[in-house]
Amino acid sequence: MQIDVEHVAKLARLGLSEEEKKLFTKQLSDILSFADSLRKINTDKVEPASHAISMKNVLREDKAIPFENADDILANGPQVEENMFKVPRIIE
Amino acid sequence: MNNKTCHELHQLLTDKKISSVELTKSVFDRIDKVENKVKAYVTITKESALKQAKAADERIKTNRNITPLTGIPIAIKDNMCTRGVLTTCSSKILAKYVPPYDATIVAKLNEAGAIIIGKTNMDEFAMGSSTENSGIHPTHNPWNLETVPGGSSGGSAAAVAAGEAIMATGSDTGGSIRQPASFCGVVGMKPTYGRVSRYGLVAFASSLDQIGPLTKDVADTAVMLNIISGHDPKDSTSVDRPVPDYRKALIDDVKKIKIGLIKNLLGAGIDPAVKKAVKDAAEKLSKLGAEVVEVELLTFEHAVATYYLIAPAEASSNLARYDGVKFGRRATGAKDLISMYYETRREGFGPEVKRRIMLGTYALSAGYYDAYYLKALKVRTLIKQDFDKAFGKCDVLISPTAPTVAFKTGEKSADPLAMYLSDIATIPVNLAGLPAISLPCGFNNGLPIGLQVIGKAFDEEIILKVAFTYEQNTEWHKRSASL
Fold this sequence. Notes:
The structure holds 2 protein chains of 2 kinds.
Chain A: H1 5-11, H2 18-35, H3 70-74, E1 80-81, E2 84-85
Chain B: H1 6-14, H2 20-38, E1 41-44, H3 46-61, E2 73-77, H4 104-111, E3 115-120, H5 154-161, E4 167-172, H6 178-184, E5 187-190, E6 210-215, H7 218-228, E7 258-262, H8 272-287, E8 291-295, H9 303-318, H10 337-348, H11 351-364, H12 369-393, E9 396-400, H13 416-421, H14 427-431, E10 436-444, E11 447-455, H15 460-472
Parallel strand pairs in B: 2-3, 2-4, 7-8, 7-9
Antiparallel strand pairs in B: 1-3, 4-6, 5-6, 5-10, 9-11, 10-11
Helix pairs in contact in B: 2-3, 5-6, 7-15, 9-11, 9-12
């Protein structure tokens, strides 16, 4: 199986070197051929399990709770101006 | 002092035979002596630990609110948020991240009076089985420094095995507590999905991740489980059901317990020495009064493939947050936002993380979703049903934790698929959300072998009972690594 590594990397917004592209093309096809073993299992009448333990939606009141140390959040920002995170240009 | 268990030290502390400051210092002395060989830690918090130890001593002196963890030095895996202390996930992308809050389990351990001595090394974002994928440095197995400690909680397991911590926390998505416990000769438990809050645990694969203890014996696992379990409104997947006193399950008796020995995990691909140790353990349990039967869970054959579609798919989504905008590393010099994303993620993630993001993105992408991701979710149902069937006739299931003892550093790092297959016995348990423990059951060439005991959902107690009985009647846990 041949994977379009560049297309997948684009979907994931993941920069890859030429070397990585080459390596991943091979390794991902190996892993996916291994995963192809699942195809031979009959799952026609099987429901998918997205969780191991059956769960229901947990709802809570939509109430704002103040976060006391907001400065510690901003301190992690790579580039901060006043109380905002600054990013490179978005619109031409 | 640092070789003793938590429950032994608790006795000494409350009898005022030792102080927490003395104990904590002895652990740091040990770290000074062996850490350059083991490399279990990424951050050591000596100053705050000694402050906490002083406070714990005060608490013990005034007999105020003493818990079994008060004054006990504990290491935290570096994917659990600690307010004001670096939480790197052993990734370059989070190398400078200082959380503004504590994970719920960290808050609970602090509240109990435990001493946090540092953050332990791991495979980057918990993706790996050897701790070689750490973006900081690899960790070495205290039993043989040329072998890996297992992973992803390799730093935590190695720290406990080397006497550099009395106990530690780990997280387990496909075996990341149990497999390093097996490789390092310690006890490690993955509780039932939902038993322990994951608020503040850096998410890898949210339908599989669970936090649990790594300790020197089974009793200590029960002690820590008592503190960290329970419902948390901040984690909507945590389950609201009462937490029993797990120490009450520490009974030396397996009579009337029906144990299923998983036959298909004793076949091809499992090291003969491991097979023998597990069969001997089954025989031992049978001699102690348990009824041991053989069971087959043939869907396990598909568990690794299922896992390596589901876990990367969830990871590719969870790791989308590392975009260089609000926290973590940001690539400099990008001309626009999109190229900043590309460059930040190219620089910040290591090869295994990139591989899994790619794999997960592919499995979820248009045209492949049904064939890969949805198919894997359906096979997951079959694996769960296989467990249900086995638990229809057995109280617990036993198997090897890992197919081999610790392998050599570098042996599998070039072949991701070979590395993935080392999780064959642990992965099915996560897919079904079940609790399981690993405890020492033998040695081969001086390296520990782990026995896995799996229980029904929320039946941690019977696992502890079986594990405790086995431990009380064997000597493996009394050996320690000589460094």
